[in-house]
Amino acid sequence: MAKPTVKTHFTDYFDVPRATLEKAGAFNISLINDLPLFIDPFLLFNSQNPAYRQLHDDIIKYLRFLRDKAATGSLHPGLIRAWYTFAEVKQTWLGFSQVGNAGHGLGRDFALALHRNLHSVFA
Known about the structure:
Blueprint (H helix, E strand, L loop, with lengths): L9 H4 L4 H7 L16 H5 L4 H22 L5 H8 L23 H14 L2
Helix pairs in contact: 4-6, 5-6
């Protein structure tokens, strides 16, 4: 008896040849796993586009804000959740899967570790 195959990627599930996706410059996303994608802040920093460079500056400004909050010690769990967790932006569909587009993002454990250590990283 043949072993059933699980269609885990876009090309498998929708029966699209991989070459078609490659020709279009598209990423063959997994339908069951979160995508390990991120925006490299150095690409923003080195961009010729002033709007992208401003995004980089805003990221640095926010990291300074978080560093300063981390230096104050403990915070209410609601503030940690609001400031230090980074949810997926649903409108980008980078968290797309067979059951939705929420993705995992960086959750509570990441937030607590960042808050606990951020002030010492920049000491």
